């Protein structure tokens, strides 16, 4: 019975610990929900949808109501000195040079462009989250490495002090070890500060999430593997699609500018009621009401060259956006080439760093044994400690560089978000 209770308590303790554990996948999920950059882009997209709805209103009739009061000191024949008119009018634009169609299509393209920009921002946040997460783990490993080096210096100092007390080594040798130990302690303090900053950076990306009581889990190597990267898929990048939609939008705006060269046709129906001043009495010498149906066609013959200038402006914007699109394609291709190169370099460095770490560990053990036997000096042991620390740092850097390169490639090909 006691054994069962112990197992239950252990399981509860295990669950309690892991409830506050944060892994890379959960960090990405939180960032996608709470990051403020994504939130801002999402609002931009919602605004673009409202612009589409607003432009749809141009296809609907307009209903207006008005009331006018007129007071004259000398009334004309057939008119009262005080009279009021109540009017309700229904109007509809029959033709305005296809401007409404062009403006609506432009807003639709802009909305699609905004959606692609939102997708691109999400991809950036995924990469930034992975980078911040990996940076935190890197700083955590650096702290552990410096703490290990400091511990070795403490042990070396104790050994050296004993030998100094026995008259085996000179005082300057002991002081040298003590200085190195103090320097190593400074590295620990700096690493602790770097780790705190890295946690704050991760917290910001997660929308200000409180990570003070969170355990940041190590990377799950099974989930961080190379995917298949097809270079032809780069053309589907959200940034490229957003710019293409923007180009289509500018084309439609150019069409809307040309609407000024066409006539405009409007139709309206109105109903008028006439009153004697502010009273409810009808004006005696006028009909009680008046219904008016009207079709109006207008054509601007000259407006100072405004329409021509607008057309040129949109053509220029189109050329400028085309240049930006071409440059973006080149930049993305360069991103891909850099990411491929960085991945290959990191893989090669990781293999080299593994071997260097094994050799440094073996070297330290040999020098430590020789130091204990009085064959090697404290300087030799200090050098071996520095070499081991440097090798650990090199291995950690190569290890994390590998996963940063994979994360970058996944971002370039937009692997993480559908």
Please, could you describe this protein's structure?
Residues 1-21 form the signal peptide. It comes from Arcobacter defluvii. Keywords: Cell outer membrane, Coiled coil, Membrane, Signal, Transmembrane, Transmembrane beta strand, Transport. InterPro entries: OMP_efflux (IPR003423), TolC-like (IPR051906). Its main location: membrane. By secondary structure, the chain is an alpha+beta fold. It folds into two domains: 22-60 and 99-262 and 304-412, Outer membrane efflux proteins (OEP) (Up-down Bundle); 61-95 and 264-298. Helices cover 66% and strands 12% of the residues. It is built from eight helices and six strands; from the N terminus they run αβααββααβαββαα. The strands form two sheets. Strands 2-3-5-6 form a four-stranded antiparallel beta sheet, with no helix packed on it. It has a two-stranded parallel ribbon with strand order 1-4. Helix 2 (24-34) crosses helix 4 (99-165) and helix 4 (99-165) runs antiparallel to helix 6 (238-257). It is elongated, with a radius of gyration of 38 Å. It starts with a helix and ends in a 6-residue tail after the last helix. Mean pLDDT is 86; it is low at 1-17.
